[in-house]
Amino acid sequence: MSIKNAYLQGVYEGLTQRYPEQKEFLQAAEEVLESLEPVVAAHPEYEAAGLIERMVEPERVVMFRVPWVDDAGKVQVNRGYRVEFNSAIGPYKGGLRFHPSVNLSIIKFLGFEQCFKNSLTGLPMGGGKGGSDFDPHGKSDAEVMRFCQSFMTELYRHIGPNTDVPAGDIGVGGREIGYMFGQYKRICNEFTGVLTGKGIPYGGSLARTEATGYGLCYFTDEMLKANGKSFQGAKVVISGSGNVAIYANQKATQLGAKVIAMSDSNGYIVDENGIDYKVMKEIKEVKRARIKTYLDYVPSAKYVEGSQGIWNVACDIALPCATQNELPLEGAKALVANGCYAVAEGANMPTTPDATAYLQENGVLFGPAKASNAGGVATSGLEMSQNSLRLAWTFEEVDARLHDIMVNIYKNTAAAAEEYGMKGNLVAGANIAGFQKIASAMMSQGVV
Ligand code: NDP
């Protein structure tokens, strides 16, 4: 264990004893607790108030059965989850993930991280996360609809516009949000902003679809500029080809970069002329096809089987935008060897702890997910504001607010790192800056 402070060590050991099988959650908790050592040392009142013990336990965990009938008439059963982690600064807020790998450990890790990320946005949102081990790949629209309706038939009783406001994540896009919103409205007989990521005709926010990818680039741009670099003329590698990856491509290209590689879980493509995000959008959002199909549009591009090799593609900036632990130590070594000078996380916890340490030790600018991918949830927060106001802002207005939020996140993160003697360490800075507001709210609200 890398935690040295005795109080934090005790809290972490308690977690390892209670949840030995929750490896993703333990990984996320260890990283945060390690960053908090100087803060806890400066605030002995936190230990007296049992603050960290409370922060690492979710306020509520809901697990439920999701039965549905497939197109062949066969009954299928999946598991559903909602982890309501912390509501000290606002209603629980965080996405729903539909992917076969989903389990309680993954949802707890995501929910825990979400608390700090949401705090960093400066908006009044607590942290939560949910999902199911349902796999939407290869299912018909009717099957996805029946699944979503069944999922919401249980979830509706735990959420609400002032209680818990879920959104999308891996495997949950506009289609799934629409089906779930329809079912919530039908059961509750209420039209409220209970989900974000909604379609524009029924209360969605313009720029929400683009927000995580755009926000990632706004954050990265700020980080680059603060270090005398820029996207202009840079070669960028983006893993994944989903929601985050596609719009990160669009914004990085607009900012003057060339995106030369992207992936899905089967393999990756390299196109030295630059990958057009519109082609990727057509393949992934319209056709829901594999990334290999890119060769039908651009025959001069190269396809390589296996997604891991993407980190061997020489680049200046890498944006991991697929999934957790997708950038391991070997990948980090390859990036450094090829001269990469900046990595910013679009996905949640895509970089393993040893890879993060290696990148930082080798002088690579590193933007941690909590800060760099907070643009999605920030814009979900703006969607909530619009729903409460019963107003709709223009794309430009939302985008300008998103830009301001990301610039502030960078500044607050960098300042927190510097204040606690870790200048340039944005991992520590994001954890500390996110933590401070929640800690202060929890201290004011008593032992709850
Ligand atoms: P999507 O489901 O839209 O896309 C995920 C993409 O990652 C797909 O292209 C998928 O390929 C690919 N992928 C999955 N596993 C791997 C792997 N092992 N190697 C390479 N590619 C892989 O999800 P999102 O884009 O929404 O989310 C991506 C990440 O960003 C997640 O970590 C999510 O938590 C995070 N995030 C998302 C936000 C949002 O607003 N959407 C907000 C903040 C964070 P395939 O189709 O083959 O599965």
Automatic annotation (TrEMBL):
NAD(+) binds at T212, N243. GO terms for molecular function: glutamate dehydrogenase (NADP+) activity; nucleotide binding. GO terms for biological process: glutamate biosynthetic process. It comes from Candidatus Gemmiger excrementipullorum. GO terms for cellular component: cytosol. Keywords: NAD, Nucleotide-binding, Oxidoreductase. Residues 205-446 form the Glutamate/phenylalanine/leucine/valine/L-tryptophan dehydrogenase C-terminal domain. It holds the Pfam family ELFV_dehydrog. Belongs to the Glu/Leu/Phe/Val dehydrogenases family. This is Glutamate dehydrogenase. The gene is gdhA. The record marks D169 as: Important for catalysis. The keyword Iron does not apply. Substrate binds at K93, Q114, K117, G168, S380. InterPro entries: Aminoacid_DH-like_N_sf (IPR046346), Glu/Leu/Phe/Val/Trp_DH (IPR006095), Glu/Leu/Phe/Val/Trp_DH_C (IPR006096), Glu/Leu/Phe/Val/Trp_DH_dimer (IPR006097), Glu/Leu/Phe/Val_DH_AS (IPR033524), Glu_DH (IPR014362), Glu_Leu_Phe_Val_DH (IPR050724), NAD(P)-bd_dom_sf (IPR036291). The lineage of its organism: Bacteria, Bacillati, Bacillota, Clostridia, Eubacteriales. The active site is at K129.
